[in-house]
Amino acid sequence: MRIAVYGATGFTGGFAVAEVHRRGIDPVLVGRDAARLRAAAAAAGIPEPDIRIAGLDDIPTLATAFAGCAAVVNCAGPFARWGEPVVRAAIAAGCHYVDTSGEQHHIHDVLRRLGPEAERAGITVVPALADDGGPGDLIAHLTAARLPAVDELIIADLRLPGGVTRGTARSMAGVFDRRPLEYSDGDWRPASDSAPRPIVPPGEPNPVRVSGFALPGVVTIPRHVRTRAVRGVVRAELAELLTSLTPEVVDTVPIAIDEQTRRTSRWLMLAEASSPDGTRARGWVTGTDGYRLTAVIAVEGAQRLATGTAPTGTRTPSEAFAPADFLDALKAEDVDWQVELTT
Asked: Which end of the chain is more exposed for a tag (fewer CB within 10 A), N or C?
């Protein structure tokens, strides 16, 4: 079996190549620059790499580069600019597709627009398989399942501000070009400016301030959880950091993050759901080294699509995979998750 990685020369893409190789699957490195692709293969310990040259301006050539692959992992952002050609090439090649996008509007557009094409090709397209969109969507599904009905669901990224790569900074800067969405009464609309209530993170004694944010879960969760409303929030200090990412600031952000910083950083996705009768449930999933884990999550998804029977079309993580089983598979990577009823 072969799995193609587009964006293999990037920071997350390098981890994805290494993860495909670690699982005993043949990685196919696809991109514009053969020398950089060879360097990425060497860094992953691949002595005789399968390298294929294709750019984003020629979808037929890109589809040819994906030929013979069971799935494509797309790690090349900003996805609002460069994501759709890779999705369309994967569909044309008959390859399952996952990406590591956290860009809310890109994810929303893929899920809404490309489903019929993916179904005709007999393949499954799953965007948002990163450390926020994937675990966030999965834990939200499991949390909602604890209630007989769901009135409102909050999905929260409660990681503390930490190191980000230039690629992430560029993607996040692009997110602010369009207003965040929220889900309310059966449709998505621009998010309100009302201040969300503070949240007590698991393991912390006091509530923390949060701000509304364009999280992937806002556009994925309502596709598999019947609810009146979904809203995304992050810690207020993280929102302040991300909203400061002007083009000038982005150019000063490092391309990579050192291993010590990655291993000591912890991410935390929290879902809080309430029922019409006031019953509440909450669930969370947490781990370390979000960049490497994003690659693990994406490759895990690609391998499951290649070897399983997920429904075709464009799908959210919880529609394509069994949520508890997927999260349990991540426990070997120091990931922990829990769901509970609360008062």
From this structure: C
| Euclidean distance between CA atoms 227 and 152, whole angstroms | 6
Q: In this structure, what token pair is assigned to residue 61?
A: 């050539």
3-state class of 39 per DSSP?
helix
| Residue 341 CB neighbours (<10 A) | 11
Which pLDDT tens digit goes with each residue over 266-301?
899 999 999 999 999 999 999 998 889 999 999 999
pTM: 0.93
Phi and psi dihedrals of 179, rounded to 5? -70, 140
Local structure of 314: helix, strand or coil: strand
Contact between 146 and 225 under an 8 Å Cβ cutoff? The reply is no
For residues 78-112, b (16+ Cβ closer than 10 Å) or e, as one string?
A: bbbeebbbbbbbbbbbebbbbbbbbbbbbbbbbbe
Tell me whether strands 336-342 and 280-288 are parallel, antiparallel or unpaired. antiparallel
Q: Show the CA angle centred on residue 43, arms to residues 13 and 97, nearest 5°.
A: 25
Measured between alpha carbons, how far apart are the two ends of the chain, in Å? 49
Nearest C-alpha neighbor of 6 from the set 81, 60, 85, 80: 85
Tens digits of residue pLDDT in 139-169:
999 999 999 999 999 999 998 866 665 566 5
Torsion of CA 171, 239, 213, 107, to 10 degrees: 10
Q: Residue 54 CB: number of other CB atoms within 10 A?
A: 21
